[in-house]
Amino acid sequence: MMSSSQKRSEYRSLFRHNVKGRLIVDKIVMGIVLSCVIVAIIPLGSILLEVFKNGLPALSVEFLTQAPGAIGTGEGGIGPAIQGTLIIIGMSSVIGIPVGVMAGIFLSEFGGNKLGKTVRFFNDVFMEFPSIVLGIFAFLSIVLLLGHFTLWAGAFALSLIMFPIVARTTEESLKLVPLTYREAGLALGLRQWVVTFRIVLSAAKNGMITGILLAVARISGETAPLIMTVLGSSQFFAGFDSPMDALPLRVWRLSLLPYDSARLQGWGAAVVLIIIILAINIGVRYYFATKNSSKGKLFYRIMGGKRQ
């Protein structure tokens, strides 16, 4: 039999023999990966460049704060649309995020049975539903029932789009937490729900935040459900039971008008929508990354997180 030193010598010789070929393969794979990244970035960069090039000239204080003017005059702005977008994103998040997080917790921690598999299957199917179908459902279940268009119907429709995404990303984020975290908590005599909410959620918060921001970005640009539920308006917020404008609706309506001024305003509204989504992502990331802020301390105290 070969001794351990002889085996090591044989392994070293095999490594020296194969290292050149493996380095070549490594460089080839790295080149393919980088090429795919470049191919993915080029369309995104071209879209952003086109939107900002056409939309930035429309931005002004009046454009961002005033209500829309007469059609074809190029006067007025998108103030009600900005206000409506922020309101409806907030309302949808209040409805969709808790439902999605709780569903994700159930699927991750208690979904290893037939019921969990069924819920997971229908959640995946629901995630692929066309948004117009969800808008029609909200129209039939809320708008027709109340007899008028309302922000609640729009928030309900968008929350239906939101919570399957949050549920799926929450489930996958919780599954990435090592099992030893759960075992350590249970060994200390903590109940399972305490371990889940105070330890597992705290460890998986980064992935959950990413999923929530992805869902927010998804609903921010939806137009079809809003056509069926909030309809649109040229006035500022007048109540939750009344129609309201939103940036996707405003972009869609402006794109249908045969006026150069309307198209310019449409590009400007698209730029504002992109900036809002970017600001939400940066703001949330900064909020959770800044642990020394008072709000961050309160959040970590509630969630049971520990500071380094």
Q: In words, what does this structure look like?
A:
With 308 residues, this protein is mostly helical. The protein has a domain at 83-244 and 276-303: Orthogonal Bundle (MetI-like fold). It contains 13 helices and no strands. The radius of gyration is 25 Å and the shape is globular.
Share in helix: over 70%
Q: Note the overall shape.
A: globular
> Beta-strand level of the residues, as a percent range?
under 5%
Number of strands: 0
Number of helices: 13
List low-confidence stretches.
none
What is the string of helix and strand elements? HHHHHHHHHHHHH
End-to-end separation in angstroms reads: 52 Å
What characterizes the major β-sheet?
none
Going by CATH, what is the homologous superfamily of one domain? Answer: MetI-like
| SSE class | mainly alpha
CATH class of one domain: Mainly Alpha
Output mean pLDDT: 87
Assigned CATH architecture of one domain: Orthogonal Bundle
Computed over alpha carbons, the radius of gyration is 25 Å
Looking at the structure, the CATH topology of one domain is MetI-like fold
List the helices and strands and how they pair.
Layout lengths: L3 H52 L5 H5 L13 H31 L4 H14 L3 H16 L4 H25 L3 H9 L4 H12 L1 H16 L3 H6 L17 H9 L4 H30 L4 H10 L5
Helix pairs in contact: 1-12, 3-6, 3-9, 3-11, 4-6, 5-6, 6-9, 7-8, 9-12, 11-12
Describe the structure using short key phrases.
single chain, 308 residues, mainly alpha, MetI-like fold, 13 helices
